[in-house]
Design a protein that fits this description.
By secondary structure, the protein is α+β, with helices and mostly antiparallel strands. The protein has 16 helices and 37 strands. The chain has an eight-stranded antiparallel sheet. It has a seven-stranded mixed sheet with strand order 2-3-1-4-5-11-6, with helices on both faces. Strands 29, 34, 35, 36 and 37 form a five-stranded antiparallel sheet that branches. Helix 6 packs across helix 8. 46% of the residues are buried.
């Protein structure tokens, strides 16, 4: 690992590498580090030796789980490569990476359709108005077809997607790349590359695509458009200038290509990043809010301006502890100083600041404006917070992370694990904004919510490494019980032992109440049939009995209880005896009042491409869902609104991913309780009895 020099903002490129999983983003980082001299050998994902995939879970699964930083020095610039995961469970990392990037390189494998990871990354980048380019990788693999991939991209994202390179050969015969801008080829003999003229068999195709390329380049610049319309030839420098302006404005999306495995096209991509993508100084100045006044201000990308840095990621490093990643939008972060957390309104001590190379930290005196860095052991700072100058406090807009959609229950395996579980969960939640946990008072479970089943597996492994081993189970649904009819019953508690006995006797009447009413208790005792001092004890007994219903042990709700008669014994009656009488009376009365189970219903909002609408609605019908409406939301997608039992939505994140090929998303919120259908209620009751017997 070579030390990285300090660069001005106009020589810094913050580039997020995003796209579907397995398309070569991590390998690109390795090759870039190698050809720029930062590493003396290229690590392999399969061997767990890459710079960007260093977490034990990443090495085990051969896939990126967390975004990693790897700066390279190339063409007089510092390129901060942010390698983001492609698997949908870890989409939070993509949100963080794209929030602080100045441009995105979207990766695809040649010959494939536009996969869901690429679509998701495109959508998030579009939300941030980021310049985007495509890199079509793996041209050397079987069935690779570059032009087919380009057509798929143009069909999906429009005619502004235009190749600036073409491959020479394909699959095993891949030997080089045609540079359409400079009208030359770069060939590869397995050890080195060299420039040469375009092969004769590709001249016509290259001329056709260069015309399209030049037209797109000219559209972004009035002078170039005039020259183009007058039939004048644009120079390579003018084409690059026009493309650079078009990319920055979001009117052109260039497509580059290569084979990272053969080190073909990597240098060309780095060259384009330097020449064709905006620097940290080229992007619009960031906006922030002054917390006291609420006034919006424009930050200045200067070293001597007040500090404003956004935290976009938090991790736990085994050696330095909590590690906070940030981007500086104004001023600079200096080692051994202090900063103000504008979100938590708390001062933080800044120790050494680092440039990160994967898991390795290089201590530096300062991180300047436009650059990315990290600092260890901040006490109060979390992802999305702003670090600033206490005298000039600013708050940058936080990162908009998706809400977790898949929940499971976790329980400690041992008493020792139980003591560590709470702090361990809090630590993971601090690192991952899409990992939530809560204690469910009605079921007594600890519930963790994530983005999917793989996310759960990774979190469980992380908990074990921290020292909290857990078992994973299904989330219990907070069913409730109520009555549909009226009834009366006696509760008589009589127990005679040596000495003083126990005696309590009451009569109660039950009536159903509207949903949400809870318990309405009426004291209708007249004539002293139950002494006044014992009447509250009957109510306590009723309340206790309601906590565990007679059907399946769930709380009973929405009942009016009237205590209207009873009897007592001068010696043997007591509060405890009448409490027991109240419990017995309630149980006896409920059994005669048509008890029934209630289940929570959630409002679900599901967004899917139109072609999956029929499958989604059909699946909701099998889940006892009721579709409330549908409406278009743009970009070929539809919003489906439905009410569905909560029990049917426990694994919906997995179901929807399967139905929509990963292209759907959903959210839920509690709506109300409804009566459970008889056949479903019977299964719940039987399961409850089985659990009790066990």
């Amino acid at each position: 690992m070579l030390p990285v020099n300090k660069y001005a903002a106009d020589a810094i490129r913050n580039i997020a590498l995003v796209g579907h999983g397995g398309t070569g983003k991590t390998s690109l980082v390795e090759t870039a580090l190698f050809i720029t001299g930062a590493k003396d050998r290229i690590g392999k994902v399969e061997e767990g030796t890459t710079t960007a995939d260093f977490d034990p879970a990443e090495i085990k699964r051969h896939m990126s789980i967390s975004a990693a930083l790897a700066p390279v020095e190339f063409g007089g610039c510092k390129i901060n490569l942010i390698d983001a995961p492609g698997y949908p469970d870890f989409i939070a990392e993509v949100h963080g990476a794209l929030r602080v990037a100045d441009a995105a390189v979207l990766f695809l494998s040649a010959g494939t359709t536009v996969e869901v990871g690429t679509e998701s990354a495109w959508d998030i980048a579009a939300e941030h108005n980021l310049p985007r380019v495509f890199f079509v990788n793996r041209l050397d693999r079987e069935n690779a077809d570059f032009l087919q991939t380009v057509e798929a991209l143009r069909k999906k994202f429009g005619p502004r997607v235009v190749p600036i390179q073409l491959p020479i050969g394909s699959e095993a015969s891949l030997s080089g790349i045609v540079d359409l801008v400079n009208r030359q080829t770069v060939t590869w003999d397995g050890t080195k590359s060299q420039a040469s003229p375009i092969p004769a068999e590709l001249e016509a195709l290259a001329a056709q695509w260069r015309d399209t390329l030049v037209e797109c380049a000219a559209e972004g610049d009035d002078d170039l458009m005039t020259k183009y319309l007058e039939g004048e030839e644009l120079s390579s420098e003018e084409v690059v200038k026009g493309l650079r302006e078009g990319v920055a404005s979001g009117t052109v999306y260039p497509v580059l290509c290569g084979s990272v495995a053969k080190n073909l096209g990597v240098q060309g991509l780095l060259d384009w990043i330097v020449k064709g993508l905006p620097s940290a100084a080229d992007t619009p100045l960031a906006k922030a809010v002054e917390p006291q006044s609420g006034k919006e201000v424009t930050l200045q990308l200067k070293e001597d301006a007040p500090l404003a840095a956004l935290v976009f990621k938090t991790t736990a490093d085994p050696y330095v502890g909590k590690l906070t990643y940030f981007r500086v939008y104004s001023g600079q972060v200096k080692s051994d100083t202090h900063a103000w957390n504008a979100n938590k309104e708390h001062e933080e001590r800044i120790g050494p600041v680092y440039v990160l190379h994967g898991k390795k930290q290089e201590a530096v005196p300062t991180i300047g404006p436009g650059d990315l860095g990290a600092v260890a052991k901040l006490t109060h700072t979390s992802t999305g917070d702003t670090l600033c100058d206490k005298v000039h406090p600013y708050r940058l807009a936080p990162i908009d992370f998706p809400e977790p959609v898949y929940s499971v229950a976790v329980a400690a395996k041992s008493k020792a694990d139980e003591d560590k579980l709470g702090p361990a969960l809090a630590r993971l939640a601090d690192q991952d904004p899409t990992f939530h946990f809560r204690r469910e008072p009605e079921t007594g479970q600890t519930v963790v919510s994530t983005m999917g089943d793989t996310h759960v597996d990774v979190m469980v492994e992380a908990l074990k490494r921290i020292g909290a081993d857990v078992e994973v189970g299904e989330v219990r649904i907070p069913y409730r019980e109520t009555i549909k009819g009226r009834s009366e019953a006696q509760g008589r508690h009589k127990k005679q032992t040596g000495g003083r006995g126990q005696f309590g006797d009451c009569w109660i009447k039950l009536e159903p109440l509207p949903q949400g009413s809870g318990l309405e208790y009426v004291d209708a005792i007249v004539g002293g049939s139950i002494p006044r001092q014992f009447i509250p004890a009957v109510e306590k007994g009723v309340q206790e009995a309601m906590q565990r219903g007679v059907l399946a042990g769930y709380p009973t709700v929405d009942v009016k209880v009237t205590c209207y008669d009873g009897s007592y014994h001068n010696v043997d009656s007591s509060e405890q005896a009448f409490k027991m009488a109240g419990i017995l009376a309630f149980h006896n009365a409920v059994e005669k009042a048509s008890p029934t189970l209630l289940e929570p219903i959630v409002n679900a909002e599901i967004v899917v491409p139109e072609e999956y609408m029929g499958d989604v609605i059909s699946d909701l019908n099998t889940k006892r869902g009721r579709v409330q409406g549908m409406e278009p939301v743009g970009n070929g997608k539809q919003l489906v609104k439905a009410q569905v039992p909560q029990s049917e939505m426990l694994r919906y994140a997995i179901d929807l991913r399967s139905i929509s090929r990963g292209r759907g998303r959903f959210s839920t919120e509690y709506s109300h309780y409804e009566e459970v259908p008889a056949h479903v209620a019977q299964q719940i009751v039987e399961q409850s009895k089985k659990e009790k017997s066990e």
